[in-house]
């Protein structure tokens, strides 16, 4: 199906023979087959936080995943260390990592916060990259604990706490072309990549 068809564009650096490894602006390039092509769109650098899309600046060693159809999560975006939360309500092709930066604090740190045993168990039972879905009884775990869980285990909270980290932004971008039909023959075809001027950058036959 179109939403399961995708191409991965990898940038190894040294664009067009240059010895300098500079990011490439991929927005406006065309990806397609011998019969049809589509323009690579803009994307959100921090999805759900940024108000506007921007050009995709693909860094050396980076990847651009281009999905032909319309996925369940329709925003184009750059991956970061918190996007694993999107797996909670959406399916991604190819697989999106379920690892997030906001791991629960160590048991000793939670004890130092003054949380009781029931609270610590409740925190440690929250799956990675997931919001808490279990009922919280403040009378048992304590109101401070309930507030701590509500405040810290979500995509927005993860971005708030880690967006200034050096490794927050990843080198992979994801976009969808939102076509109703597949772009490539499933058996044999030629994938063609052209820059904004229409010049051939790369092609791949299979």
Q: Could you write a compact summary of the structure shown?
A:
The chain has 206 residues and is α+β, with helices and mostly antiparallel strands. It is 17% helix and 21% strand.
Please describe what this structure looks like.
The chain is of the alpha+beta class. About 15% of the residues lie in helices and about 20% in strands. The protein has 5 helices and 10 strands, in the order βββββββαααααβββ. It has a 4-stranded mixed beta sheet with strand order 1-6-8-7, with no helix packed on it. Strands 4-3-9-10 form a 4-stranded antiparallel beta sheet, with no helix packed on it. Strand 9 and strand 10 form a beta hairpin. The longest helix is centred in the last third of the chain and has 10 residues.
What descriptors fit this protein?
alpha+beta; 21% strand; 5 helices; four-stranded antiparallel beta sheet; four-stranded mixed beta sheet; 206 residues; 10 strands; elongated
Stretches with pLDDT under 50, minimum 5 residues = none
Overall body shape: elongated
Structural class: alpha+beta
- Proportion of strand residues: 15-25%
Mean pLDDT: 92
- Gyration radius, rounded: 21 Å
Total count of helical runs of at least 4 residues: 5
Could you spell the SSE succession in H and E letters? EEEEEEEHHHHHEEE
| Terminus-to-terminus distance | 18 Å
What is the element layout, followed by pairings?
Elements: E1 6-10, E2 24-25, E3 30-32, E4 37-39, E5 57-58, E6 63-67, E7 77-80, H1 107-112, H2 117-124, H3 138-141, H4 143-152, H5 155-162, E8 169-176, E9 190-194, E10 200-205
Parallel strand pairs: 6-8
Antiparallel strand pairs: 1-6, 2-5, 3-4, 3-9, 7-8, 9-10
């Amino acid at each position: 199906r179109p939403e399961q068809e995708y191409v991965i564009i990898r940038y190894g650096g040294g664009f067009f023979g240059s010895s300098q490894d500079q990011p490439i602006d991929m927005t406006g390039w065309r990806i397609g087959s011998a019969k049809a092509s589509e323009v690579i769109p803009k994307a959100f650098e921090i999805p759900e936080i940024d108000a506007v899309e921007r050009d995709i600046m693909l860094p050396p060693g980076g990847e651009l995943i281009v999905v032909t159809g319309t996925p369940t999560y329709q925003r184009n975006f750059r991956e970061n260390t918190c996007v694993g939360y999107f797996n909670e309500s959406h399916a991604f092709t190819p697989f999106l990592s379920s690892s997030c930066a906001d791991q629960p604090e160590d048991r000793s740190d939670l004890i130092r916060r003054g949380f009781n045993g029931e609270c610590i168990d409740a925190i440690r039972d929250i799956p990675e990259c997931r919001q808490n879905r279990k009922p919280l009884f403040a009378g048992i775990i304590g109101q401070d604990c309930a507030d701590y869980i509500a405040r810290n285990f979500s995509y927005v909270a993860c971005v708030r706490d880690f967006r200034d980290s050096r490794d927050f932004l990843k080198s992979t971008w994801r976009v969808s072309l939102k076509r109703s039909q597949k772009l490539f023959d499933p058996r044999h075809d030629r994938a063609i990549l052209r820059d904004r001027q229409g010049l051939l950058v790369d092609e791949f036959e299979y």
